[in-house]
Design a protein that fits this description.
By secondary structure, the chain is an alpha/beta fold. It is 23% helix and 29% strand. The protein has one domain (7-229): Class I glutamine amidotransferase (GATase) domain (Rossmann fold, 3-Layer(aba) Sandwich), CATH 3.40.50. The strands form three sheets. The protein has a nine-stranded mixed β-sheet with strand order 4-1-5-6-13-12-11-8-9, with helices on both faces. β12 (191-196) and β13 (202-205) form a beta hairpin.
Length: 230
């Protein structure tokens, strides 16, 4: 385990990417995740959707972020695809379900971001609304959303009664998995955050905290929990 700065694993994408002279498939991640982990006091470790992720292979980590990205394959929760559901990225689904299972087995602190919260819910037996309106203004454009946070929750300790967040999603939690508690909602009732009851720190948010590197509250809470687990 890390003696000083906790090691925070972050799931990544595999995408066709251009850099230098190359146009190749690469493991990529929005830099905001890396900067937020560093500024919160951790060291980021990128975890691509290749290889085998188990409790043994991630045992060197002190915490985990499941990053945002593509729609979860509806087959993972027994549903047929909606016409507006994106093409499945089964490499990420398989890798991130394995990462969640391994992290929960190790009692690692976990932060699920947007898709990451949905992965957490599906991994634990929940389902998703495959399309909702109003939280995805345009590709690459984030909606600023006010959310109400339930008192007596970890998220309330971190964020207080209300806060503004940045959203970019067209799916949301439907049936919430057993063991998960809804901790925040948007004004239209959309589930904006959950936490795993009884865990030291397993929090999912539907928004994108990595978009604001001046507001590090969630990443600081993750790193603080990771320090306690190190």
């Amino acid at each position: 385990m890390s003696a000083s700065k906790p090691l925070i694993g972050i799931s990544t994408y595999l995408e066709r990417t251009r850099f230098g002279h190359w146009d190749v498939e690469a493991a990529v991640l929005y830099r905001g995740y890396l900067d937020c982990v560093v500024r919160a006091g951790g060291n980021p470790v990128m975890l691509p959707p290749v290889g085998t992720w188990t409790a043994e292979t991630i045992g060197f980590l002190d915490g985990l972020v499941i990053a945002g990205g593509a729609d979860v394959d509806p087959a993972a929760y027994g549903a047929d695809p909606h016409p507006k559901t994106g093409e499945p990225r089964r490499d990420r689904d398989d890798a991130e379900f394995a990462l969640v299972a391994a992290a929960l087995k190790l009692d690692l602190p976990v932060l699920g971001v947007c898709r990451g919260m949905q992965v957490l819910n599906v991994a634990l037996g929940g389902t998703l609304h495959q399309h909702i309106e109003g939280h995805n203004p345009a590709p690459g454009v984030f909606e600023h959303t006010g959310i109400a946070v339930d008192p007596g929750t970890q998220l309330h300790t971190i964020l207080g009664d209300r806060t503004d967040v940045q959203c970019h999603h067209h799916q949301s939690l439907d049936r919430v998995a057993d063991g998960l508690r809804v901790t925040a909602r948007a004004s239209d009732g959309t589930v904006e955050a959950v936490e795993l009851v009884g865990a030291r720190f397993v929090v999912g948010v539907q928004s994108h905290p990595e978009q604001d590197i001046e507001d590090l509250r969630l990443f600081e809470a993750l790193v603080a929990a990771a320090r306690r687990s190190a």
